[in-house]
Design a protein that fits this description.
Blueprint: H1 3-6, H2 34-50, E1 57-61, E2 65-66, E3 77-78, E4 82-86, E5 96-97, E6 108-112, H3 118-122, H4 124-133, E7 137-141, E8 148-154, E9 157-160, E10 169-171, E11 176-181, E12 184-188, H5 198-211
Parallel strand pairs: 2-5, 6-7
Antiparallel strand pairs: 1-4, 2-3, 4-6, 7-8, 8-9, 10-11, 11-12
Length: about 220
């Protein structure tokens, strides 16, 4: 028998593999409901439009954050519904790998509640984002009941944010208000103006043209 034939089969070590420090794919399940999907897309579109001339941030939805101290994909990972990282390169990523991003964690996290996830979002995740992520601004929003709550990190502990007269909460990190508009969570400027999506901007532009007796379809 040749030396090659005498070799024993390789053991199954797939559970012990230490993955490389980059290029890790997101491991998040699909969105739970259509409301979740629409809400996340709305937040993404409006913030990216507002900051369309900036290249110093990263925003994502339903994307895995890997934060294992041992740099393993198989342990210590979470996927917030929506998060923003500031002072980083604006580029496409397969996931957010903390050890490959200069140790950066999200500056802002928003969780979209559901009956299945509400307890986790209000308990375990709140503590995780406070104690481990040290995320300065944390919000949760229920698209069914319209429950909307926010926290800001003060001396290591989350302190509830007080709403303004319009029921909006201030995000110190984003420099924007968050509030409910037509049963959806939206961003508002410091002056209180709704941050639109590109589609909403296009609609307003088309309406203005029609007021001037110009058919936008002919442009």
């Amino acid at each position: 028998m040749s030396p090659i034939q005498e070799l024993a089969p390789f053991p199954d070590i797939s559970q012990d593999i230490i993955f490389p420090p980059s290029d890790l794919y997101s491991d998040e399940p699909p969105w739970e409901t259509e409301l979740h999907l629409r809400q996340i897309i709305l937040l993404l579109k409006s913030l990216e439009w507002l900051w369309r001339d900036r290249n110093d941030f990263y925003v994502a939805g339903n994307l895995t954050i890997y934060y294992s101290p041992r740099q393993r994909k198989s342990e210590d990972f979470r996927g917030p519904d929506f998060f923003v990282v500031l002072d980083t390169e604006r580029k496409t990523r397969k996931s957010w790998v903390v050890w490959n991003e200069d140790g950066k964690y999200p500056n802002v996290i928003i969780e979209i509640l559901s009956p299945k996830t509400a307890d986790t979002d209000k308990g375990f995740k709140k503590k995780l984002y406070q104690d481990t992520f040290r995320t300065p601004d944390y919000f949760w929003f229920d698209p069914n009941t319209l429950e909307f709550v926010g926290f800001h990190l003060v001396d290591g502990d989350y302190q509830p944010l007080e709403p303004n007269a319009q029921g909006q909460l201030w995000s110190q990190q984003l420099g924007l208000f968050l509030g409910i508009h037509q049963n959806q969570l939206r961003f508002f400027t410091p002056e209180g103006k709704l941050v639109p999506t590109p589609e909403e901007v296009a609609e307003r532009y088309a309406a203005k043209l029609r007021e001037l007796n110009i058919d936008p379809e002919t442009l």
